[in-house]
Design goal:
33% strand, globular, mainly beta, 4 strands
Length: 64
């Protein structure tokens, strides 16, 4: 799973941008959107986001 900005951030990872959470298949290189557009960026999904059994993921969705 990756967090993906909708616009090129030139290598930075800022807060307060439109993002999507996406699933990236390393074998097929296909990308599937997991969420609609979210207001987020830095701090939306950083570390230890998966549940111990791998069935759930946690992320923060900011309100504008």
């Amino acid at each position: 799973m990756i967090i993906s900005y909708l616009e090129d951030q030139k290598g930075s990872h800022p807060f307060g941008k439109d993002v999507k959470l996406r699933l990236f298949d390393v074998e097929t290189k296909e990308i599937k959107d997991l969420t609609p557009v979210l207001y987020g960026g830095q701090g939306t999904i950083n570390i230890h986001s998966w549940s111990p059994d791998g069935d759930w993921i946690a992320f923060v969705r900011y309100h504008q």
